[in-house]
Each structure stands twice: as C-alpha cells, then as structure tokens.
Input
Amino acid sequence: MRDLEKIAALALFVAIAGAARGQTPGIDVRVVDRQGTPVADAVVVAVPADPNVRLPARLAQGNVVDQIDKQFVPRVQVVEVGTAVTFPNNDHVRHQVYSFSPARRFELPLYAGVPAKPILFDKPGIVVLGCNIHDWMIGYIYVSESPYFAKTRADGTAVLANLPPRAYVVRVWHPQMSVAEETTHKTVDVIPGPHANAAWTLELKPETGIRRAPAPGQGRGY
Amino acid sequence: MILFTVFGAPVRAEWLLDAAAAVKYDSNLTRAANGPDVRPGFAAALDASAGDFIAITGNDGVTLTAHARAESHVRYHGLDVAGIGGTAVYRHKFGVGWAAPWAALTVDGSYERYRSEIRDGASFDVRAEAGRRFTERVDALIGIACDRRYAPNERPEVPGIPGNPFALAGQRVYVQAGYALGEQWLFVLDAAIRRGDVESTSQQGAAVFAASSAIAEDPAFGDERLYAYRLRGTTATLGGTLSFALNDHASVDLRYRYASTRSPQSLEYRTSNVALLLAYRL
Output
C-alpha cells in the first residue's frame, strides 16, 4: 500500500513539474537512419488509437510551398486534409508545378509570382510535386488525416505537442524510406506531464532523383 | 527580364552560364591509317557559353547561347584553336512531367581560328533529336545531324585537285543513353555513325591519293612529309562517360570515345579519345 502511495506521489510530482515547466502533453520524436545519422524532413503523424475519437480541426498555418533557386521550399510540407496550399514562385524565372499523385492531381500552368488560386488537398496521402520546366525539382506534400503531426528538424527530432492525453498510433514517413509507412506504426500513451518518447531507425534508399548538375551530352539549355 | 510577349503573356528568360575545362588525350591526331603517320597528343581545353532559356509555354522552350572555346596542344601547336559561335535550340515536350517525351532542333554555328591557318573557317551543325526519360535513373535520345565545315584558306598542291581538305560535310545518326548509378554518379553511353567527308593526314601514297578529293600540305605536325587529304568515309563512334556531380552546379566527367573510319581504297583509321572534364553550370 505504501508503495502505491509512493508511486502516486511520484506521478503527481512529475505531472506538477511538467505543468510548472509549461509542458503540455505530447511526444518527443527522434528519427535516425541505420548509421545513426539524424534524419531531417521525416513526417510524424499521431492518430488516436481509439477510432471513435473525434479529431479537432487544426489551425491552418504555413501552408505554402515556395519555389526558390529552382527548388521547392520546403522540400517536404505537411498539411491536414482539407487544407489549401499556395505555390508562390520567388524565382525570376517561370515554373509549371504539377502532380500526378492519386492523392491530388493538378497542374499550375507556367507562372511567375503567386498563382491566383491555392490548391485544395482534400484526400490524405502523399503528393509528389514536380516542375515541367526544371525536371530536377521535386517536392512532397504529406496530407495527413490527423491534426497531430510534425516534421523532423535537421537534428532528427520533432515534437508532437498539445496532444490530449490518450493512446496514439504514431507513424513516420520519409521520401527515401525503403519500407511502407504502415510498418512504422507504434502505439504511444500520452499522459499529462512529461512528454512520451518515440524513436525510429529508418532504412533509407539513396536519392536517385534527376540531377541538376551538368550531365554529359546534355547540350545547352533544358 | 521580360524579353518578348507570346500570346499576350510575358515571357521571362532564364540566364544560363556553362563553363568546362578539360584535359584530353587523342591517340591519333593525324587521323592516319598507317602507323608511322600516327601522332598522339595531349591538349587542354576551355569551353564557355552564356545565354538565355525562354520558356514560351510549359511545353516549348528556346535556348539562345553564345559560346567560345580554346584548345592548346602540348606538342602540336598547329592544332591550337580559338573559336566563337552561337547556338539556338528549340525544344518541345509532348506532355507534362519528367517522363514526357521531347523533341529538339538545334542549329549551331561557329568560327574557329587555328595556328595552322589551313584549318581556319566557319562550321555549322544542325541536329534534330528526340528523347525520353524512362525512369528517374534512365534516359535516352536519338538524333540525326548534318555538319558542314568551310575552309577558305586553300593551298592547292596538285593541279586540278582542290587544296581545302578541311572543307568537310557529312551526316550522322546518333544515340545516347544515361543511367544514374546513385545520388551523384551518372554513366552515359553514346554511339554514332557518320557518313561524309573526313580528313586524314599522312605521307603521300597511291591509295590515299586515289581516294582523296582535296590535298594540301599540313604544317600542323612539323613534318614536311605529311599531307592532309579529304576522303569520303564512314565513321563509327562508341563512347562512354562516367560523371560525378560535385554539387548542383558542377560535375567531373571522365570520357572515353573510340572511333573507326573506313574510306574507299580500304583505308581505315582508328582513334581513341580520353578526356577529363570539370563542368560548371550556373
């Protein structure tokens, strides 16, 4: 009985300490590759384990995929399903952005500046972006069915913050991942107080995108 | 930069700058059929071009460039050359996406000045190409081309036979395929067959004399016994280039090319070329 009291007191202490630091319930995520190198731009999504839980809408923010120096910036963008994304072109040349992905097919005819209409992403999934002028340009929009998502920073870490305490199925996705996203599922219990931790070690494929550097026999121009 | 207007929409040009430095080895600079006439040699070369790519529509683009090149030979300075020129490329893409097939028409003109002035002159090359990227790793193209080189500095040696063996014309068909070995490595295989005029420098001989349509003394190799002959011939070329991307703008290429030319009178010469290039694109 005394042990139980001690455990309860410890849990209360941890919860109070967490609250005192202003920490809301959440999950600290770390993603590395097989060599232990931090993996940036990995998308982490948490979905309540109980399918009956109704998900709140997330405030739309930063739903932009720029084009800077003939690259998509950010290279990986995460949005919640139902979000509209704009594709401003900050280069001095024109781009023609397109996607053939089943989650969202679209084409923005050759343009400069900001296209008049954003593109609505109304189906969950991965949308691969390209530019019809500059074939090496590639970008990704991960359309999440859950409002609880994050993207790893250069140090391979991310924080899923403000999660209502409950059990979650958490998964990770990366453009170079060699296994299916479903195989990364982990169940994580989020409790009031300190963040839970979740870590993944991913097998990454080499990037074999179309290269931008000069290629033999390429000639001049595109 | 707004250059002009097509269908009422402003057309923005994209500034392009390419530069390459190379060291080259050629096993048969004379293009000679007989062993004693063969002169191998090393050279250093610089190549630069600047221009604009103009996307007229999402599927059509025009590239206009001015280019210059210089080549200096270690031993045979008569082959040292400086040249300037211009290239216009129109390219059409049949669809959207990197896998869409494309076709291009290229017109290239240049003027080259050699230390051995018999080689001086303008040259033109017109190419029609079609290609496709099959996967992110594999792409290929096929092309046909016509080339013409003028050599106004004639030096007739034999009465009744022109003295401009470097005035050449020919047609060729070629293919090229690229395979990305990884994030930075790329291997490109190319092959071509060209029919038309070729130039071969060798000592006087009955066979080469009978087959030639122009003859002149060739001072480039410092050997008074050597003459330049214009022949009709078919050249088969096979090459491979291994390219390593240093970053998004620069690559190092190691290129090997083998060519075999057959002319009438059973004249045949072979050349092997090796080049190490550093290429930069802005």
